[in-house]
Design brief:
The chain has eight helices and seven strands; from the N terminus they run βαβαβαβαβαβαααβ. The protein is of the alpha/beta class. Strand 2, helix 2 and strand 3 form a beta-alpha-beta unit. The longest helix has 29 residues. The chain binds 1,4-dihydronicotinamide adenine dinucleotide.
Length: 260
């Protein structure tokens, strides 16, 4: 993969990124910071967030850790208010935190269902609602929600996850319409990654075997490789930039052609 990256000027802007302790969220935090934004990094573990913050700072950027369980609606609301108070604004809200609890429908417990919906979908509602308040007052903002190709089409053993990610798409389209106005530069978009190399997909490799997963990727992904977190982060930087001002309510699929 080429190392040349998209660039955008987000100087003085403030971004909140959930699930920023590793994987796609960490790559997004690093890229937004490289583009000049101050980044509030959210995840449950303060220690792991400290690693992201330290990487941002080593690269000359500004970031701070905001430990929080995104499934806790009150904590999410307070966190956005705290960032707005401490840093004076919230320009970019990236709802990225997500989990899987895969199992076939007959074996799926209420807890498997509720935990995934609360973490992947209710969190998007809570963070977006709080961020939208700040953005409406400022008359500008970007909400970028990380959905999944599993939200576009079914995926065996992921009834809870697919439902949460499809919910994120419906939420994105509706909130994009609600927040769109000639007087306000607020856009709301979703990204659907396909198979991206992170801890989430490592778990799949461990369960199914690395070779089996590699063969499967070759069979179903026209570009015949898994994606990298930076390839999602680049799209986030673009959607956060002024270049994407006329794009709202859209779903950008980044999956090597898997769903084309
Ligand atoms: P990951 O498992 O590597 O990282 C998930 C992040 O979310 C971590 O920082 C984790 O601490 C955080 N998180 C999880 N539950 C949380 C909670 N209750 N409160 C606060 N933080 C929490 O996952 P990955 O692969 O980086 O995925 C990021 C997003 O991209 C997720 O929404 C995932 O569903 C989505 N996605 C990932 C794909 C992939 O192939 N890796 C494909 C399609 C979508």
């Amino acid at each position: 993969m080429a190392d040349a990256r998209i660039s955008a000027d987000l100087t003085d802007q403030v971004a909140i990124v959930t699930g920023a302790s590793r994987g796609i969220g960490k790559a997004i935090a690093l890229r937004l910071a490289e583009s000049g934004a101050k980044v509030a990094c959210v995840a449950r573990s303060a220690d792991k967030l400290a690693e992201t913050v330290s990487e941002v700072e080593s690269a000359g950027g500004v970031a701070a850790a905001y430990p929080c369980d995104v499934a806790d609606t009150d904590a999410a609301t307070k966190l956005v208010e705290q960032v707005a108070e401490e840093w004076g604004r919230v320009d970019v809200m990236v709802n990225n935190a997500g989990i899987t609890r895969d199992t076939l429908l007959p074996r799926m417990s209420d807890e498997d269902w509720d935990t995934v919906i609360a973490t992947n979908l209710r969190s998007v509602f809570a963070f977006s609602r709080a961020a939208a308040g700040v953005m409406m007052r400022a008359k500008r903002g970007r909400i970028i929600n990380i959905s999944s190709t599993s939200g576009l089409r079914g995926n065996e053993a992921q009834a809870n996850y697919s439902a949460s990610k499809a919910g994120v798409i419906g939420f994105t389209r509706t909130v994009a319409r609600e927040l769109a106005s000639k007087r306000r530069a607020i856009t709301v978009n979703a990204i659907c990654p396909g198979f991206i190399a992170t801890d989430m997909t490592d778990a799949l490799k461990k369960a199914a075997g690395e070779e089996a997963v590699t063969e499967r990727i070759k069979a179903v992904v026209p570009l015949q490789r898994e994606g990298q977190p930076q390839e999602i982060a680049d799209a986030v930087v673009f959607l956060a930039s002024d270049s994407a001002a006329y794009i709202t309510g859209q779903v950008l699929t980044i999956d090597g052609g898997m769903t084309c």
